[in-house]
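Hi R.,

As promised on Friday, here is the backbone we talked about, encoded as structure tokens. Could you run it through your design pipeline when you get a chance and send me back a sequence?
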């Protein structure tokens, strides 16, 4: 299959004397994520082209979820609106209580049903690109994120503006990969950069640290060209670093970015965390099961150093 992504000329020099850890990474990544739909960007990042209808259906449910906290009149007006620039502008202006400081949309009691419908649609999209057979766990219930445009001031210690691996956080593991799904808004000026490791890569590079403390690590990496576009889903191994870029005058973008544990993982690089949700459960959401949230949309979300455990207060309701 023809690769539609940037030429990976930067990678040639890394193929000669790869460390054992890097060789194992590449081999596991191929085993875990190669399928007939995958486009190889490099040996640690694949992309999947999303069928148009799937994307359209998913965006319909995404919109219903993100506008659900709005006042009834604005909500009714936006139900027929397909201009995402306008929708994101209103969300930005309204400053919803269910959006965290770093832009995560948190499902709440009053909007649980809309969240469940969105997850049902998300599973359908995942199936359409063949990733359903590849994922063992999501590192938490999938969440949407609005990345506001360029901001001034200090970043939080785990701000995605610092180049980082998701494996550096508490709830991820060295076996995780990250799924990037750019959905709407300004993905031209507000996007994600990716960095490929030197050939002396070691799994120790994935030991826990705050993203702000990763500046020494970036010296061991080289930036690579990966197209970040709304019609593709990108999966990148946790040995790849990534970084949010918001150029000056960039507008908000909407995406779903989530850590995933593949079905075949290296046992000593994985430990279960109570936040991890099996794919088999997510697959049933909105069909046989509902994810019900207890906290009201009126309850303020606490700001924490490492990100909030905002989805902890929930239960699963079986429908049969
Ligand atoms: Fe990240």
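Update: got your reply. Pasting your designed sequence below so it's all in one thread:
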């Amino acid at each position: 299959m023809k690769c539609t992504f940037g030429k990976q000329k930067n990678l040639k020099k890394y193929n000669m004397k790869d460390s054992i850890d890097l060789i194992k990474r590449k081999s596991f990544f191929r085993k875990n994520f190669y399928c007939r739909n995958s486009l190889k960007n490099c040996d640690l990042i694949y992309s999947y082209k999303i069928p148009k209808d799937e994307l359209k259906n998913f965006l319909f449910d995404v919109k219903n979820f993100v506008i659900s906290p709005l006042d009834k009149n604005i909500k009714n007006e936006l139900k027929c609106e397909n201009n995402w620039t306008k929708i994101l502008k209103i969300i930005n202006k309204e400053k919803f209580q269910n959006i965290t400081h770093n832009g995560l949309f948190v499902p709440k009691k009053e909007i649980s049903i809309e969240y469940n419908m969105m997850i049902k649609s998300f599973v359908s999209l995942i199936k359409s690109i063949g990733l359903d057979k590849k994922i063992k766990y999501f590192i938490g219930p999938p969440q949407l994120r609005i990345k506001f445009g360029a901001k001034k001031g200090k970043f939080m210690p785990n701000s995605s503006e610092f180049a980082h691996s998701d494996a550096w956080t508490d709830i991820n593991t060295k076996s995780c990969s990250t799924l990037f799904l750019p959905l709407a808004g300004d993905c031209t000026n507000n996007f994600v950069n990716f960095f490929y490791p030197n050939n002396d890569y070691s799994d120790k590079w994935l030991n826990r640290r705050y993203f702000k403390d990763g500046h020494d690590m970036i010296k061991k990496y080289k930036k690579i060209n990966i197209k970040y576009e709304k019609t593709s889903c990108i999966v990148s191994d946790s040995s790849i670093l990534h970084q949010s870029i918001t150029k000056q005058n960039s507008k908000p973008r909407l995406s779903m970015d989530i850590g995933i544990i593949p079905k075949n993982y290296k046992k000593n690089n994985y430990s279960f965390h109570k936040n991890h949700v099996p794919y088999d459960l997510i697959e049933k959401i909105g069909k046989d099961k509902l994810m019900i949230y207890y906290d009201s949309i009126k309850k303020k979300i606490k700001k924490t150093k490492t990100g909030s455990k905002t989805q902890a207060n929930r239960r699963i309701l079986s429908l049969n």
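One thing I noticed while checking it: Residues 160, 164, 166, 178, 242 surround fe (ii) ion (CB under 6 Å).

Thanks again,
M.
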